[in-house]
Amino acid sequence: MLNLPMLGIVFALLAALSSGVEKLLRKKVAINVDALTFAFFFELIGAIFAFPLFVLNFHMPEVSYAWLFVIVSGFLWAGVAFTMVKSYRYLEASFIAPASKLRIALILILSVIFLGETLNSNKIIGTSLVFAGLIFLSYKKGINFSKLKEKGMIFLILSILLISSVLVFDKFASSFFNPSMYTFMIYFVASLVLLPGIFSKKEDIKKMIKSKFIFLIILTSILSVMYYYLILTAFKFAEASVILPITELSSLVAVLGGIIFLNERKEISKKIISTLIIIAGVVIITLS
Question: Total domain count for the chain?
Answer without folding.
Answer: 1
